[in-house]
Amino acid sequence: MAWMVVFTDLVSLMLTFFVLIFSMSSVKMDKWKEMTDALSQNLNPSITKSVATATAKFNISTIFRKRAINLDYLTAVLERAVNQDPLLKRSLLMRLEDRLIIALPGDLLFQPGRAVMTERARDALFTLGGVLRNIGNQIGVNGHSDPVPPQGGEYASNWELSIARAVAVTNALKRSGYTEDIIAYGYSDSLYSQLPDVTEEQRQAMGRRVDIMVLPNVGD
Known about the structure:
Layout: H1 2-24, H2 29-43, H3 60-63, H4 71-83, E1 92-95, E2 100-105, H5 106-109, H6 119-132, E3 137-143, H7 158-175, E4 182-186, H8 200-207, E5 209-218
Parallel strand pairs: 3-4
Antiparallel strand pairs: 1-2, 2-5, 3-5
């Protein structure tokens, strides 16, 4: 059994030799960590290594976001669409310095004192929305009324009626495919005095309107 004693001494000397060499060498910690991580992963598969995922400043919605259309060009396109629809033909397109306004007579869209659009009006708004859904311009919808209080008792004031009609037109444009946010306002008869100097019957008809306002900038 004497050879076992010699063998044990030899193994001890070799181990001491390797420890001495290791202590004199410089260890690269990044390589050492990779090796220990690999051993840990192989010996204990339940430990998973987290991997950082790449992030980007752009996504599908930002890359394919619609651009704002030149208002002069949009006016020409809308004029063709409006003239092809008997109901929309009675609306008024106004190209102002900083916006485009599509004035829709309320009597063509709604029954007196109500804010539910007729079937014919919904079809006309769907046609109009078919053009507007292809643009990224910001849109606002403003409801107006004449000074005569609403009849029927469904709405207590023209303020409520005008905002309800603006919301109805907004929803119709949304259903037609316009995806940007739309701001709806109700002005009641607050702008009635600014109407042209025409007969009172014409002023009342012009007062009961819903304006679709298209701005030159992109909507949020």
